[in-house]
């Protein structure tokens, strides 16, 4: 297999995409390809690796104002959130907040307020129901992550701040935006922080993984990977999972950062890929994508390779994983080849593939029984049926990770604008 080009930065990829759009008129209709068991060179399946399916859970939403506290919604990063049946396209716009910088990562939601940091390092607190800016704070000069929010605080990682080309993690008060504490780091960080029981976990570009006390900012332990850790760390049963830029995937203990297992580096199957994708840990497996063009599944207990599926280009996308009633355990992941894949979580076999017509750089999100993702090449957000891949809805806005929700509204990140959307025909919720 041909070794891929060095990975460009996300900002560079956006500029390339904008240039291509100016030169190319995309008029072809998106196509859906159904296959039962498509295999390509580079595909691998090891049926002896254990698989732990769960019974499907019907989507529901019991809370009046449910939080969306972390990147990917939950600590296992399955990117699957419940939703009431009424949370269904089409949508109409209630409000929009425009900014001057790229919105590469989605906001998080807590206590009815959205927190989102743009690529220029400006953090905004936006009232979810009205779009009113509650407060804003210029924290740095470059950022590419989602915050974490819980209790009365919001936590942010930065690539650069001030004149220093080094990273920082910052804790702020949710009500005022006042900085509670901050810690400078020797390396840049674009790892969306994971919060669990008073500890913050995140990686950095020099390969250091940190466990930081969320109340004081004190470092409790460090783990050193062989390559940059850009993904958000994923937590399941007291273990943290992540890939790095040396081509390794690894599992470490949450309590002390001690390594449990690590895969071989330098390209797991000879492809020389790196891992930008945030892992999802479900069904006893670790699912993530690689710049070698493959989606991977590993045994969460041992790190043994369960399967790999070769796409047509880089896989920066993080997977969304769920057990679909009447369809089965499925991994949904996008590729820079412009295709959204629905793969068997057990074998990696393709269940359906939807070609969006551009390039998929960001990650999908499952809300109820609908899959949402954005096409960077076309700046378009799609909503697909989980079972068939059929288009339920599309909107000409969105580039990376498009949506979060509070069960009443959808909050969609465009290129530079954050939109509050409500199902057509529904009344604006009043409080």
Give the helices and strands, then pairings.
Layout: H1 10-23, E1 31-34, E2 44-45, E3 80-81, E4 91-98, E5 108-110, E6 113-117, E7 122-127, E8 133-138, E9 148-150, E10 153-158, E11 168-173, E12 179-184, E13 194-196, E14 199-203, E15 208-213, E16 219-224, E17 234-236, E18 239-243, E19 249-253, E20 259-262, E21 280-282, E22 285-289, E23 294-299, E24 305-310, E25 320-324, E26 328-334, E27 339-344, E28 350-355, E29 365-367, E30 370-375, E31 380-385, E32 391-395, E33 403-405, E34 410-413, E35 417-423
Parallel strand pairs: 3-29
Antiparallel strand pairs: 1-28, 2-24, 4-35, 5-6, 6-7, 7-8, 9-10, 10-11, 11-12, 13-14, 14-15, 15-16, 17-18, 18-19, 19-20, 21-22, 22-23, 23-24, 25-26, 26-27, 27-28, 29-30, 30-31, 31-32, 33-34, 34-35
User: What is the subunit arrangement here?
Assistant: single chain
Shape: globular
Helix coverage percent of residues?
Answer: under 10%
The largest sheet has its strands arranged as 1-28-27-26-25
* Broad structural category: mainly beta
Task: Characterize this entry briefly.
The protein has 431 residues and is mainly β.
Question: Can you give a write-up of this model?
Answer:
Helix content is 3%, strand content 40%. With 431 residues, the chain is mainly beta.
Task: Give a quick set of tags describing it.
431 residues, mainly beta, five-stranded antiparallel sheet, 3% helix, disordered N terminus
